[in-house]
């Protein structure tokens, strides 16, 4: 291989690795619709909602948890920090519950799909990379880059 091509290959590989590392370390925000009545949620409540151990929000309304697809960096981070497991490790859990009549959270293909779903269902709760949050949603909690503990959203 020519030295120029080899150097270019090295640069492209390094940039791709840096982008993957940045994605893994990005802050994740748990979000609801701007019109949602959902307030702050305890970590245990959030975990129980996404593991479908609980189907109602603290005010008694039905909860609609939304997941991003397996392999999405925000789902990996959310799953590790909130559920204590990687998405792939939950496969047996969902298989068992499915036969008991419990379905896993809805999986949407992208951050844009999550945003749109939140706009039409005030009972939905999801998560996104913090930089994907917009004015159509309200942040419940943020998991900062590299942190193991969440932060409450700032009151503006």
Provide a short characterization of the protein structure.
It is built from five helices and five strands. It is an alpha/beta fold.
Distance N terminus to C terminus?
56 Å
Say which CATH homologous superfamily is assigned: Periplasmic binding protein-like II
The strand line-up of the biggest sheet is: 3-2-4-1-5
**Radius of gyration, whole Å:** 18 Å
- What is the tally of beta strands? 5
Number of helices: 5
Class based on secondary structure composition and strand pairing:
alpha/beta
Share of residues in helices: 25-40%
Taking all residues together, what is the mean pLDDT?
A: 83
Describe, in plain words, how this protein is organized in 3D:
With 156 residues, the chain is α/β, with parallel strands linked by helices. The protein has a single domain, classed as D-Maltodextrin-Binding Protein, domain 2 (3-Layer(aba) Sandwich), CATH 3.40.190.10. Helix content is 38%, strand content 16%. It has five helices and five strands; from the N terminus they run αβαβααβαββ. The chain has a five-stranded mixed beta sheet. It is globular and about 40 Å long. It starts with a helix and ends in a 13-residue tail after the last strand. About 13% of the residues have low confidence.
Provide keyphrases for this structure.
D-Maltodextrin-Binding Protein, domain 2; alpha/beta; 16% strand
